[in-house]
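Running this now, will post back.
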Amino acid sequence: QVQLVESGGGLVQAGGSLRVSCAASGGTVSSYVMGWFRQAPGKERAFVAAIRWSGTSTIYLNYADSVKGRFTISTDNAQNTVNLQMNNLKPEDTAVYYCAAGRRSYSVNDVGAYDYWGQGTQVTVSS
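Update: finished.
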């Protein structure tokens, strides 16, 4: 059973940066597809980014169009964490951000691809 705990959310002004992290236990981040999703009030949970390791040196990355060029997903395999660096934040990035882990390597933008979820961390971007 994989457990995921997010941290690092907070309040930031538009144009600013924030880094959210997800600590995993019960499994290693390099052996799962690790994803970040977000959910704004009144909206469905939406894909943000995903990362998957193949072997020890090949990484596959996926991003939602809305965050490409602004957000970067990465893993720290020594710390067993997955991180999301968010730059040039916009008010529309305001949401609860969730970390997820799954085994399915296709359709990684689909919530159904993930078996384990964290409790979420709030990110608020003021204008």
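The CA atoms of residues 29 and 48 lie 17 Å apart. More later if anyone needs it.
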